[in-house]
Amino acid sequence: MKTHACLAIAMLAAIAACSPRSAAPVPEESEMAKALRQAEPCRNVVTEAAAQAVASPGQPAPAINRLVISGRDGIGWNGAPIDAVTLRQYLDLSGVMSPTPLLVVAVEPGADPSHVQNIRETIWRGLSCRAESF
Q1: Separation between Cα atoms, residue 84 and residue 73, nearest integer Å
Q2: Model-level pTM greater than 0.85?
Q3: How confident is the model at residue 84 (pLDDT cuts 50, 70, 90)?
Q4: Rounded to whole angstroms, how far apart are CA atoms 120 and 114?
Q5: C-alpha to C-alpha distance for 107 and 125, rounded to whole angstroms
Q6: Cα dihedral 55, 58, 59, 62 in deg (nearest 10)
Q7: Which of 42, 81, 121, 134 could form a disulfide with 129 if both were Cys (CB 3.0 to 4.6 A apart)?
């Protein structure tokens, strides 16, 4: 009898090992993440190196705004500290200018990745494009 019990336990263990396990539910992608993934890349959001490459000798220099992302919540616009609300206002204004100015983005070492992602989302909201160059 003891042998049958051991055999039954072994068979159940083998069946359980072969059975598909219910995987942990994968969190659904947020609406913001979907929108960012599907948006067109920003053509006018660049790094400093790309901004230098855009400059053409003999041509008027394009309008440039400089955005610096630092620390957990630091934002700089053309050398002045600003907050997220002001950044959104500046981006909204930039988005309706013709031609749209270049936005040169610098991410300082040690900038919080979630802060950088929040800035990318703010750029998407203000300029309706995906900032992927930084």
Answers
A1: 9
A2: no
A3: very high
A4: 10
A5: 19
A6: 40
A7: 42
